[in-house]
Design goal:
Elements: H1 3-23, E1 28-34, H2 43-46, E2 53-59, H3 60-63, E3 64-66, E4 69-70, H4 73-84, E5 88-94, H5 107-111, E6 119-126, E7 130-138, H6 143-160, E8 166-169, H7 189-206, E9 211-215, H8 224-237, E10 240-244, H9 251-254, H10 257-263, E11 270-274, E12 282-283, E13 288-289, H11 292-302, E14 307-311, H12 316-327
Parallel strand pairs: 1-2, 1-14, 2-5, 5-8, 8-9, 9-10, 10-11, 11-14
Antiparallel strand pairs: 3-4, 6-7, 12-13
Helix pairs in contact: 6-7, 7-8
Length: about 325
């Protein structure tokens, strides 16, 4: 055997050994309650020994109700209750909605001209050529808006770093059709990429004890190159990564974020959320509806995650997720 072949074989064996060893580590399981924070008071949740804690969504406008007037009382309340039950809190900061009637940004961001409208509508193309509004996203690429968001992250770190399990930012995916009048002012792939990196940098620099994590699933125009640049940057600054939608072997995700998340294993923490609708997708390897055991197996053996955030979607949550997680401790 030549020296070159020997080195390649050793590299292959090392990779296989790492993957096998990493898949043996214990995943931390959190229940994703989204905005339904009252559900943490259900004993079926907090008495389950296989659950590490709760992931709860807090919108920017909840946390900063007026300019420079911050209200973290809901986080404090949830944190205190979870701690009393031996559970942890993972905070998701939301600056985007998927409902055209709701905004996640504070009112002053929307009304003060310095923020250029504060948020832009996202669109989805249906029936071939019909566009519908699908929600609102903060103008992440706008320096005036970004500065205010970064200030929020700093304030959160000052109060909660080391007290919460972790904090994650909402997904990078945005949908803006490239038609006259619909593409936001100042927006481009370049400005957006830079803005996401800056968010990541602020998150990494300010959360030293709790886990900082960026959700990155797709980038504008479904650019894989831009998405890879996000993960390369995360690798460089050792920032946790992940995303929404844990869909077992989903073709679109397998061509985009999943391999990139997998490559982050052992470099920085990774976590993916089982979102609404993920429990009834078809597993392309079986042709049948996915099972929660298959979701867990994919999270552990392919993605090699540190965290799984299970959405409390019924009837799957009560009938399948809770029993599965309880069984992991037996």
């Amino acid at each position: 055997m030549t020296k070159h072949l020997t080195i390649n074989l050793l590299s292959f064996v090392s990779i296989v050994f790492f993957q096998q060893a990493y898949s043996q580590k214990a995943i931390k399981h959190f229940i994703f309650f989204s905005r339904s924070r009252e559900l943490i008071h259900d004993s079926t949740f907090y008495a389950n020994t296989g659950i590490s804690g709760a992931q709860i969504t807090y919108s920017w406008k909840q946390l900063e109700q007026q300019k420079d007037v911050y209200d973290f009382s809901e986080i404090e309340e949830d944190l205190a209750f979870l701690k009393s039950k031996g559970k942890k809190l993972f905070v998701q900061v939301q600056d985007v909605t998927f409902d055209s009637t709701r905004f996640a940004v504070p009112k002053y961001i929307l009304t003060d001209p310095v923020y250029h409208g504060g948020a832009n509508s996202q669109y989805e193309l249906i029936s071939g050529n019909k566009l519908i509004k699908t929600g609102w996203v903060a103008r992440r690429w706008d320096p005036s808006v970004a500065e205010r968001f970064h200030r929020l992250l700093v304030k959160l770190s000052q109060q909660f770093d080391g007290r919460i399990e972790g904090i994650n930012l909402a997904e990078t995916s945005v949908e803006f059709p490239e038609k006259s009048g619909l593409l936001p002012t100042g927006f481009s792939r370049y400005t957006y990429l830079g803005a996401i990196k800056k968010n990541m940098q602020v998150l990494r620099e300010n959360f030293k004890k709790s886990i900082p994590l960026q959700y990155a699933n797709f980038m504008p125009g479904d650019s894989y190159d831009d998405l890879k640049k996000i993960y390369d940057y995360a690798n460089r600054i050792k920032l946790g990564m992940g995303g929404p939608d844990l869909k077992v072997y989903s073709t679109f995700q397998m061509e985009n974020s999943y391999p990139l998340i997998r490559k982050m294993a052992g470099i920085a923490p990774t976590g993916v959320a089982v979102q609404e609708g993920n429990y009834n997708v078809i597993n392309p390897k079986t042709g049948k509806q996915v099972t929660v055991e298959e979701i867990l197996g994919f999270a552990k053996n392919y993605l090699m995650l540190d965290y799984v955030f299970w959405y409390a979607e019924e009837p799957y949550y009560s009938r399948q997720v809770l029993p599965l997680l309880e069984s992991l401790k037996k």
